[in-house]
Amino acid sequence: MAGYVEEEARVLVNIEINPGIYHLKIEAKEIAKKWQPGQFVNLLLPAGMDGIPFLRRPFSIFMASKTEIGIVYRVVGRGTDNLTQLVKGDSLNCLGPLGVPIKRKIEPSATTLFVAGGMGIASIAASAIYSGGMLLYGARTESELILLPEVTGGLAERMLISTEDGSFGTKGLVTDLLPAILAVEDYTGIVACGPRGMLKRVKEIGERYNRSVYLVIEERMACGIGTCLACAIKAPEGYLRVCKDGPIFLAQEIVL
Predict the structure, then answer these.
(1) Which CATH number, 3.10.180.10, 2.60.60.30, 2.160.10.10, 2.40.30.10, labels domain 5-98?
(2) According to the model, what pLDDT value does residue 1 have?
């Protein structure tokens, strides 16, 4: 966990890219310099008109350059609604990068299969792009598929998309694509991020085909550095902290 910094970042872009989903780009030079795929930031969200402050909120870093980081978020409550009000030039307090990088648990390569459901794409797209592996990406409907130009541009032919209603790509759940691929392709590791039901299914299928499965867990947090235990997740023996021990875990390390 050593190496995170607290930084006053400057908002560069904060735009709605899908209904209720925003892409926030901020200048955070120190965090961008230290970031590795799979890590996140804890943002101090702006108080609303009532002046009531918020605890920090965790957000996956989708991509980073030398000086900037990109975050994708969905408006789910008062805090994220306040976040949408930020405009270019505004200041935002950031703590990061936090969490264990994906490559500390698994070194992604061309033999790694990535599976993303919904907003989970923001946590693993960078690793998929850099690794040379394949990405399966699913959502309920076409309007919930996010960052397609950025993701498809980096992955070229190494990507399959599904929607539950068939409005884009293959009709069905993203996990429906897994068995046929694992039956014929020699992917040794699977990295997945998405809803808990999807993660359970990926774990089951991976075990059936004798593949190592790694799960990137999204959880509510407070401190983000392992002291408050707000993000504790059950393990076979005791509990682990998503912010400090994760957010990536070998599937056998945790109980979903």
Answers:
(1) 2.40.30.10
(2) 42
